[in-house]
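Weekly structure sync, notes
Attendees: PL (lead), two postdocs, one rotation student
Agenda item 3: pending single-chain targets
PL asked that the sequence for the first pending target be pasted directly into the notes so everyone works from the same version. It is reproduced below exactly as submitted, 205 residues in total.
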Amino acid sequence: MSSHLNLAIITLASLVLTGRAADPPYLHAPAVEDYAKHDPNGVTILSNGRFLKPAGKHLAVAPSPYGLAMSRDGKILFVASDGVGQIVTEWREADPVVAVIDPPKYQGKSGKKEKPTNGGGADFSPDGHTLYWSSGETGAIYLLDTRFHQQISEVSLNTEIGGRKYEDSYVVDVKVSGDGKYLYCADVTNFRIVVIDAEERLVVG
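Predicted structure, written out during the meeting:
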């Protein structure tokens, strides 16, 4: 009896010691100690150690993309990147067509023409012929012809409405109404939604 008791005590002590000696779990990103790298045809390692592998076909765009819009028929994509926009057509085909759009330079507070600026907010008209694109810190919305890749006009949100003069507008998102008559702009600087008459190209609310 005592031998069985001694064996049980030894076994229990061994289990306790083994549990204490076990190393704590080592939590790490999938890449562990591998450096970040860009591999378009394989597995990219992000700066945080995570893996990125595109599923299906991929297309390189301009640096720092922060806005994406698609026409209602799905035929046209627009990518808003740092200082440049790209209209992508035939993106489902083997060789997509990419057209670069440079936003106009603007006059900064110093009075000099500064580099092109834009925001990520963009949307298409129902027929896909017009692209509405936030200019970012200039407080305007660009109107672009998607067929000729040219600017048609722009509508400034830094205007008086309802007896109040607004300044420093910055639109982060743009949406067109179902019928294409109105444009809704999220101005984060002034905490408001601005309504633009798309036909008259005027701020109306």
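Discussion points:
- The longest strand covers residues 150-156.
- The CA atoms of residues 63 and 154 lie 25 Å apart.
Action: rotation student to compare against the earlier draft before next sync.
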